[in-house]
Amino acid sequence: MEPTRHGTTRRPRRRALLAGALLAASALAAGTVPLSTAQAAEPAAGGRPLPYLDAKLPVQQRVKDLLARMTPDEKIGQMTQAERNAVDADRAQITDLKLGSLLSGGGSTPTPNTPAAWADMVDGYQQRALATRLHIPLLYGVDSVHGHNNLVGATVFPHNIAMGATRDPDLVERAAHITATETRATGPQWVFAPCVCVARDDRWGRTYESYGEDPDLVSRMETAVDGFQGDSRKDLARPDRVLATVKHYAGDGDTAYGSSTSGSYKLDQGVTITDREHFRTVDLAPYVTAVRKHDVGSIMPSYSSVDWTEDGIGNPVKMSANKELLTDVLKQKIGFDGFLISDWDAINQIPGDYPTQVRTAVNAGLDMFMVPYSAEKFEQALLAEVQAGRVPLSRIDDAVRRILRAKFELGLFEHPYTDRSNAATIGSDAHRAVARRAVAESQVLLKNADRALPLKAHQKIYVAGANADDIGNQAGGWTVTWQGQSGNTIPGTTILQGIRQYAPDAAYSRDASAPAAGYDVGVVVVGETPYAEGMGDVGNGHTLNLSDTDRANVDRVCAAVPTCVVLDVAGRPQIITGELPKADAFVMSWLPGSEGGGVADVLFGKRGFTGKLPVSWPRSEAQEPINIGDRHYDPLFPYGFGLTTRR
């Protein structure tokens, strides 16, 4: 705080006391009292608050002051992120290890899984962080990749590939803003989203996390960063904003099939074999946009490796160890001034023993380390490397400076506990209406012979297929749990329920065994069941082909009704070359999330079909990878294809 012209210390002292009162009030609202309330606002000599606790000072000055007060082990604590399950039973670890961050991995939730329980949980952890000597608050991260998807009852949006099909950056921003609002109201202030990978091979199990195969499209959809963070970093302290993370830097969607060395994965965590020009124009381009246009606050490097063709194939470098790309390119050339967070235990994939892995990753430029169940081991190893002079203290200071900046910008020093004022909006009708619109805009009409669509409410409609009435399948992976799950997993509306909002008497046969004769229209819903990451790689128990059951359902229904409509609920194109001629209309519905009514809105003409393919649609699995611009480009449907209908 700057002294007044008359040198009085009264106002600063009152402000310090007010800061303590606000901390206490927020703690009482959360049902906890922080151990550090009195100390956190303790004034310095002369009655002035410590500079780093003075909200009136510039962030840069506050960071500089706090950094100067920190010991090496306190700094290393700020660079350490643990999984909540690792500390929940003994929360004193948060204080003892001086942890800077916690996360909830996929499915890591409180019991009960409610907004209040989430906020109470995060605030309880925060209380322990504020008990440290310098009272530095925790930064809590979560994978809100299509809504606050770990929370039962949250608004669950379509996955990114569907959002790419909308070609609607404003809608993408609105969806991210709703996600930020619902997430922060439950405690977490940081999301590991959006994924700005460029999916170049649909056999990849993370294809649905990408906005598409064209880096220009991906860059256009990065309005998600603005939805999360606001128009500027000054908005981060608001209760409806969170720190965003673009991931996975860089090239994770462009790896060679069969190059992964992670278990039975085929593409995920594999090797991007490329020349620097291709890498720059395809894989790196979205990150330039994220940094220079959207000022993203954090970036997560990929598990994948890069192998430059210019120096010969066979010497790949893990991204977590790649100083050229993390420091020289991203931080220095592109100008990224946020912080880098590693992926889950990613440093363990770097060659060498553990001290070598730690040293290599820190010196390469990683700032915070997601070490879910090995926080103490990491801190001890890094401290030893610093003491031995193998990791410069200047590198530690750079990392911590970046992390502290985010915490100050998020307003955590002034308001460390959860602002629950937006909790009532979680899963609200207004939020679900935006998600329903996103579903409708994402539907891609691939075939519409004889104007089979839109349907009419008076028609006799027969619906078949498991994915017609399975909200878990239509939400996909990263929904309540990491891999997602079939069944009634979240509140919302299935596609069948949406259809019955227009045609209440629509019949349904899950396996198409009920007779379909006598109906005017058959709607067969085919597709995938949930998966995430490399678990969904083709060749790892998955294929792009329709299942035998789905093909049989199409055959049975389309042969029995005058008009047959097929919907594909999946995270990527499936091979439909043989089934397409049997259907009068074919719709790619992607993974719509919790609001299946949006599918019905376009089927019945309340909204017109406007979605466009964000990826090329292969004729066969063997045709992958296939992308716009390829020399011999002959897909079943080209990138950007999509028929339209009038409202």
UniProtKB/TrEMBL annotation:
The keyword Cell inner membrane does not apply. Residues 1-29 form the signal peptide. Its EC number is 3.2.1.21. One of its GO terms (molecular function) is hydrolase activity. Keywords: Glycosidase, Hydrolase, Signal. Pfam families: Glyco_hydro_3, Glyco_hydro_3_C. Residues 444-644 form the Glycoside hydrolase family 3 C-terminal domain. InterPro entries: Cellulose_Degrad_GH3, GH, Glyco_hydro_3_C, Glyco_hydro_3_C_sf, Glyco_hydro_3_N, Glyco_hydro_3_N_sf, TAT_signal. SUPFAM superfamilies: (Trans)glycosidases, Beta-D-glucan exohydrolase, C-terminal domain. It comes from the Bacteria. Residues 73-405 form the Glycoside hydrolase family 3 N-terminal domain. It catalyses: Hydrolysis of terminal, non-reducing beta-D-glucosyl residues with release of beta-D-glucose. The keyword Signal applies. PANTHER family: LYSOSOMAL BETA GLUCOSIDASE, PERIPLASMIC BETA-GLUCOSIDASE-RELATED. Belongs to the glycosyl hydrolase 3 family. This is beta-glucosidase.
